[in-house]
């Protein structure tokens, strides 16, 4: 403690270096957590948590109302939306575009994806319920140069050609922007099909229980897949991103801890005579080594605690500011969140302590190996 108190400038620099590294880590980790939370919110909002498709060898789900009744009985299911999807060619004033045209029940689709609430640029998703109406994705509307009130021609081999009035345009920022939605009845008339669908979207209260719910549905013979099966690369990409970011932040703290090693090395050089005197008075090599290791640990834990307090305070402040950014392809402004994980507030100060003591091992060992006679001579 005498070394720490008398070398105020060096102590401040060592503690400050570790503290700055820990503060940066806490802030960046909170930003990372907030970013992942935002990504998951967007994905879970738009994508179905469970997708149910026909049995093997079948093109459609025939007894879908009975199936939907069963799905509703599964605990955790909060929304179910049937859909009849088909390829279609839309044309307007010489512009032609091939799209996936999906027949839906507007209220039920909105309950699963919230397209009608958050992603409509113009018009109303519920407008497709009244007759031959269509809602276009932004990309499709742009390529057709079609606006609300325009009539587009829908056609496809073996399908019934029909005129559809545009009643809305939506923008999700994903591939859906090249699609079109019509009512379930309109899609059946277009295909000449009866009371059938091609898939069912299911939303759950807890997306992480989607695998269990999919297994319950699959037991009936249908092909039910959770979002993890539908988008396996999604979690893998985020996991790799998280690992690489954590590695960079850990290296930052490791570099900062070597500032403590430098300080401790200087202390050993300056206190050579004092070390020799202690050893001449009977202090063992183990005790000398312990003194310098404890000093390294004190500097490390002080820097870690200081950085944790600063990093936590800044993260809470930035989160409260509710900064938003508007990406070119994003349908909505994106809220920048700083979410502090309580585990980080414990783990990183302890990591700072461990790295600081590790950085002090060589100076401590060097001090314990001094020859008392040589040390007393300085």
Structural account:
The chain has 378 residues and is an alpha+beta fold. Helices cover 56% and strands 19% of the residues. The chain has helices at 2-6, 8-46, 64-73, 106-113, 115-118, 138-144, 184-191, 210-218, 227-230, 232-270, 272-280, 285-321, 342-359, 361-368, 372-377, and strands spanning 50-53, 77-92, 95-104, 120-123, 133-137, 151-155, 162-170, 180-183, 199-204, 223-226, 324-325, 334-335. Strands 2-3-8-5-7-6 form a 6-stranded mixed β-barrel, surrounded by 4 helices.
Mean pLDDT: 86
What percentage of amino acids are in beta strands?
15-25%
Strand order, sheet with most strands? 2-3-8-5-7-6
Helix content: 55-70%
Gyration radius, in Å: 32 Å
Order of helices and strands: HHEHEEHHEEHEEEHEHEHHHHEEHHH
- Main beta-sheet strand count, sense and barrel state: 6 strands, mixed, barrel
Show unreliable segments.
none
Counted beta strands:
12
Q: What is the molecular shape? A: elongated
* Total separate domains: 2
Structural class: alpha+beta
Query: In angstroms, what separates the terminal alpha carbons?
Result: 22 Å
Number of helices: 15
Oligomer state of the chains in this structure: single chain
Which helices and strands, and how do they pair?
Layout: H1 2-6, H2 8-46, E1 50-53, H3 64-73, E2 77-92, E3 95-104, H4 106-113, H5 115-118, E4 120-123, E5 133-137, H6 138-144, E6 151-155, E7 162-170, E8 180-183, H7 184-191, E9 199-204, H8 210-218, E10 223-226, H9 227-230, H10 232-270, H11 272-280, H12 285-321, E11 324-325, E12 334-335, H13 342-359, H14 361-368, H15 372-377
Parallel strand pairs: 3-8, 5-7
Antiparallel strand pairs: 1-9, 1-10, 2-3, 2-6, 2-9, 4-7, 5-8, 6-7, 11-12
């Amino acid at each position: 403690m005498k070394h720490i108190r008398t070398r105020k400038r060096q102590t401040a620099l060592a503690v400050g270096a570790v503290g700055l590294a820990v503060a940066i880590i806490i802030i960046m980790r909170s930003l990372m957590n907030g970013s992942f939370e935002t990504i998951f919110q967007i994905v879970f909002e738009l994508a179905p948590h469970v997708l149910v498709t026909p049995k093997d060898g079948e093109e459609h789900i025939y007894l879908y109302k009975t199936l939907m009744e069963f799905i509703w009985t599964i605990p955790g299911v909060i929304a179910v939306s049937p859909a009849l999807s088909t390829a279609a060619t839309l044309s307007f004033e010489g512009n032609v575009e091939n799209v996936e045209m999906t027949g839906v029940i507007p209220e039920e689709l909105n309950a699963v994806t919230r397209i009608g609430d958050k992603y409509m640029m113009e018009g109303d998703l519920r407008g497709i319920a009244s007759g031959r109406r269509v809602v276009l994705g932004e990309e499709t509307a742009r390529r057709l140069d079609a606006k609300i009130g325009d009539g587009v021609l829908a056609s496809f081999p073996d399908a019934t050609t029909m005129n559809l009035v545009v009643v809305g345009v939506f923008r999700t920022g994903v591939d859906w922007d090249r699609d079109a939605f019509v009512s379930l009845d309109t899609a059946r008339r277009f295909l000449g099909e009866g009371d059938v669908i091609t898939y069912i979207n299911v939303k759950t209260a807890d997306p992480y229980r989607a695998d269990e719910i999919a297994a319950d549905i699959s037991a009936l013979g249908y092909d039910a897949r959770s979002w993890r099966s539908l988008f396996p690369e999604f979690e893998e990409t985020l996991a790799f991103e998280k690992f690489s970011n954590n590695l960079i932040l850990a290296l930052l703290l490791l570099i900062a801890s070597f500032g403590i090693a430098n300080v401790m090395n200087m202390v050993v050089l300056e206190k050579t005579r004092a070390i020799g005197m202690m050893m001449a008075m009977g202090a063992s090599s183990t005790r000398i080594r312990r003194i310098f290791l404890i000093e390294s640990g004190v500097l490390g834990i002080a820097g870690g605690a200081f950085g944790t307090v600063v990093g936590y305070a800044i993260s809470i402040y930035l989160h409260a500011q509710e900064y938003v950014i508007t990406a070119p392809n994003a349908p909505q402004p994106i809220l920048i969140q700083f979410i502090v994980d309580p585990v980080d507030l414990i783990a990183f100060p302890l990591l700072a302590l461990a790295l600081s003591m590790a950085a002090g091992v060589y100076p401590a060992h060097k001090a314990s190996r001094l020859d008392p006679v040589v040390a007393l001579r300085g």
